[in-house]
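Fold this sequence, please.
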Amino acid sequence: MSEHATDTRDLSISRLLNAPRALLWRAWTDPELLSQWWCPKPWTTEVLAFDLRPGGEFHTLMRGPDGESSDNPGCFLEIVPQERLVMTTMLTADWRPATTPFAMTVIVTFADEGSGCRYTARVLHPDDATREQHEQMGFYEGWNIVITQLEAFANTLK
């Protein structure tokens, strides 16, 4: 568990990014931009649904170079412009219960800090076993790669 996690079921990463909060937010909330940085390269992301509102559908399909795929349907729970995004895999569009085998809620926050932005991603799991599974899947490595890609991509938007 990282120093920023508040519960043993959580995984968390907090980094100071050298990019303006407005550009990080834009990269996150424009589906055409999201698809360009969302998963570790050489994987690709197709945004199948992106309805940026509480109860709106959030659905990505990630594809690996060897034919692997990861289908990720979910639902936005909260949107605070340029400050906070909350989404879950436990619900789909319009609050319909999901039949996901991997339940989690993701909270992403953005806060100005110095000349950059404090970016924090916290992932809540239903139990320690699911958190452990996510950590074993490479949570820290994969999410840190994606955060680095987000930072670099956001800086191209200037």
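Helices lie at 21-29, 31-34, 128-136, 139-156. The domain at 18-156 is CATH 3.30.530.20 (Alpha-D-Glucose-1,6-Bisphosphate; Chain A, domain 4).
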